[in-house]
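Long-time lurker, first post. I've been practising inverse folding by hand and with some scripts of my own, and I keep getting stuck on stretches where the structure tokens seem ambiguous. Below is the full token string for one chain I'm working on. Before anyone asks, I'm not after the true native sequence, just a reasonable design that respects the backbone. If someone could post their per-position residues I'd love to compare against what I wrote down in my notebook.
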């Protein structure tokens, strides 16, 4: 199990912030553990966070990736996907991700995916990998992999593959609508066996977010997911 999660609230510059994340590591737990301890701090210390949060998040993702690469002798050559969500004063939602951990918002019972699955089979990701000098190998019975090794096209770390990988996040910045009910963040161990709407339908009547997250992970296990499964549910109403 190489997943780590964050679910906490704090006051920052007179704003209430909800900080939520899933970090799904590969080749060890050192990189996702580092992200758990440092990524949000790196984002919030950016002076422009409240005036241009997308730029601050993008800059913090890139700088965090560079630090992880520089610390490879200490952290190892592994890496991690990430999906992060920052809830500002209960009204504004900032979601960023690299890799295939996913964020799904329920609005009036309808699932809406806020993150992007960065898979090597995606045409734009495939082109980016080729442009960087890499290749995507798709062996029968397996998923497409960067240089025949990694099943995601973007990730933190992965020093040995970094020339062919991106750490550029996709970012969503929006005001929550009155229809917003809850947000699901989960690693791909859940999404490999569950559609977005199925996940929303499964927990829409469960008011306790911890119980809702457990219901989702239990369902993923019942559906015979063979990957790490981590989940955070954030209730708005």
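-- Answer (accepted) --
I ran through it position by position. Result:
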């Amino acid at each position: 199990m190489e997943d780590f999660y964050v679910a906490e609230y704090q006051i920052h510059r007179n704003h209430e912030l909800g900080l939520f994340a899933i970090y799904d590591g590969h080749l060890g737990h050192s990189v996702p553990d580092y992200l758990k301890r440092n990524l949000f701090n790196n984002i919030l210390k950016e002076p422009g966070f409240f005036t241009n949060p997308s730029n601050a998040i993008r800059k913090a993702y890139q700088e965090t990736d560079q630090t992880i690469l520089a610390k490879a002798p200490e952290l190892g050559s592994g890496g991690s996907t990430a999906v992060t969500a920052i809830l500002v004063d209960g009204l504004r939602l900032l979601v960023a991700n690299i890799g295939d951990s996913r964020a799904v918002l329920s609005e009036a019972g309808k699932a809406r995916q806020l993150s992007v699955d960065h898979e090597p089979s995606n045409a734009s990701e495939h082109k980016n990998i080729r442009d960087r000098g890499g290749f995507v190998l798709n062996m029968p019975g397996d998923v497409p992999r960067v240089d025949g090794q990694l099943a995601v096209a973007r990730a933190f770390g992965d020093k040995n593959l970094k020339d062919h990988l991106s750490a550029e996040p996709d970012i969503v910045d929006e005001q929550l609508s009155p229809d917003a009910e809850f947000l699901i963040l989960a690693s791909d161990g859940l999404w490999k066996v569950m559609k977005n709407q199925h996940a929303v339908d499964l927990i829409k009547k469960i008011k306790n977010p911890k119980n809702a997250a457990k219901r989702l992970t239990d369902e993923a296990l019942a559906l015979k997911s063979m990957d790490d499964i981590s989940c955070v549910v954030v209730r708005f109403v």
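A couple of notes from the structure itself: DSSP finds seven helices and twelve strands in the chain. Residues 136 and 146 are 5 Å apart (CA to CA). Happy to go over any region you disagree with.
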